Amino acid sequence: MSLPIVAIVGRPNVGKSTLVNRLTGEMASIVHDQPGVTRDRTYRPAFWQDREFVVVDTGGLVFGDDSEFLPLIRQQAIVALNEAKVAIFMVDGQIGPTALDLEIAAWLRQQPVPILLAVNKCESPQQGLAQAAEFWQLGLGEPYPISSIHGSGTGELLDQLLDYIPPTDPEITTDEIRVAIAGRPNVGKSSLLNAFLGAERAIVSPISGTTRDAIDTVVERDGQTYRLIDTAGIRRRKSVDYGPEMFGVHRAFQAIHRADVVLFILDALEDITEQDQRLAGHIAEQGRACVLVVNKWDAVEKDTYTINDYRHRVYQRLNFVDWAEAIFVSALTGQRVNKVFDFVNQAVEQHRRRVSTAVVNEVVQDAVNGHSPPATRQGRQGKVYYATQVSTQPPTMAIFVNDTKLFKDNYRRYLEKQFREQLGFKGTPIRLLWRGKKPRHGVPE
Q: Per the record, a Pfam family (predicted)?
């Protein structure tokens, strides 16, 4: 990343994610009373005065306990500190200094990064100074009383932050492609992200539900910038309890909404599920481009017909996205992983493609000549006057006809099929808007 990085660290439940949301101006990180909600490091853009920077939220640090995800969370925090220009160490002013705070402070003093000490939950200006004063004993310099929830004291903290953040240099930005990595739990989304980057960017674990936030990572390949968004595994709603997992699933759907293209990850060792079908329907409904990435292909026993049989079964079950290209990969071995970007580029190109009105009408005319619109028993027949593309992302065609009621679903699907056969649009949904002729003097045409 070209912008300087500010890492936020601390023990669990001191309000790190709340501060991230305050600094970035959005509900970017999941906030919940349960410890351990934030596990990966999440990157969010922020600014103060004339400076732009990236805030990194990290999981709560716990030493002397190697259970569950805690060693991995520590590893992620170390990576964030190594990338950072400055770090903010957050503590809880209402509880006061704890043994874990002292242990983390001793560890931070050994790190090669400047540290600012933020004493959170100091909602009262009068009591805040007294609460903050207790933390001088950490040996990290002046403690700044703040309230992440109300924003008090954050201005003073950010003013100090500017000593370590250089003024933003104007630079030419490239056209960024936003890529959401989505799928059910344990299909290998985070492993695929790490395979793209060649680094342990996201925590990978066989325990389903490891990723909860939608995590943005910016990479550049062959002069093109990509924003990769790893998301939480999406389970059936009745399987998701209220709390962090529910918020994570909600963030996953938000990630799909703001993406240009979705890498829909499937597990080659498992059958297509009802939840896969729901997710495919959501991708199509949102109008996102899509690439079907069949992971764990190295573990499948194959013969001459395996790949074609599997591809046929996938398209049959995921008919909502039967226009998407499929690629068979292994995040574990790296097999064909680099080719995924080629599929992304092709899908995005089609998603942004615009076709001239003359070509659109030529396709429609050929379709009508090949198969006339059906007529009613009363002899009224559908007529297509003309068509034009009205927008992209996804490509959207307006079809002007005499009466939209005369064009049933079968004929509408037929016309969409003709657009795909004649114009391609592989990798993107297309939308047809049917527009009827306005009645004259209140009498329908």
A: MMR_HSR1
From the CB of residue 313, how many other CB atoms can be counted at a distance below 10 Å?
Answer: 12
154 labelled ligand-binding: no
* 290 annotated to bind ligand: no
For residue 254, pLDDT over 70 is answered with: no
Annotated binding residue 14: yes
Of the chain, the percentage scoring pLDDT greater than 90 comes to 41
User: For the domain 176-351, what is the CATH code?
Assistant: 3.40.50.300
- Does residue 212 carry a pLDDT above 90? no
Annotated binding residue at 15? yes
Q: Is 185 flagged in the annotation as binding?
A: yes
CB 373 within 8 A of CB 381: yes
The residue whose two tokens read 């009363």 is 378
Q: Establish whether 297 is an annotated binding residue.
A: yes
Which of 251, 250, 254, 283 lies closest to 266 in space, CA to CA? 283
Instruction: Enter the CATH code of domain 357-436.
Output: 3.30.300.20
- Which of 175, 208, 148, 133 shows the shortest CA–CA distance to 10? 148
Q: Flag whether 39 is marked binding.
A: no
Query: Could you read off the pLDDT of 308-360 as tens digits, one per residue?
Result: 999 999 999 999 999 999 999 999 898 999 899 999 999 999 999 999 999 99
Write down the domain spans for the chain.
Answer: 5-164, 176-351, 357-436
Do the domains at 5-164 and 176-351 have one common CATH topology?
yes
187 has binding-site annotation: yes
For the chain, how many residues are written?
445
Distance of CA 21 to the CA centre of its chain: 17
Q: Is 232 annotated as a binding-site member?
A: yes
Q: Which residues contact 81 (CB under 8 A, 6 or more apart)?
A: 7, 9, 87, 111, 113
Residue 163 in marked binding region: no
Cβ atoms of 88 and 80 within 8 Å: the answer is no
231 among the known binding-site residues?
yes
Q: Is the pLDDT of residue 91 over 90?
A: yes
Write the CA distances from 143 to 115, 162, 355, integer angstroms.
Answer: 10, 16, 60
- Beta strands 42-48 and 51-57 are antiparallel
- Is 148 one of the annotated binding-site residues? no
Confirm if 123 and 160 have CB atoms less than 8 A apart.
Answer: no
308 annotated binding-site participant: no
Contact 113, 142 (CB under 8 A): no
- Determine if residue 281 is labeled as part of a ligand binding site: no
Q: Which CATH superfamily is domain 5-164 in?
A: P-loop containing nucleotide triphosphate hydrolases (3.40.50.300)
394 is in an annotated binding site: no
Is 189 known to sit in a ligand binding site?
A: yes
Q: Is 190 annotated as a binding residue?
A: yes
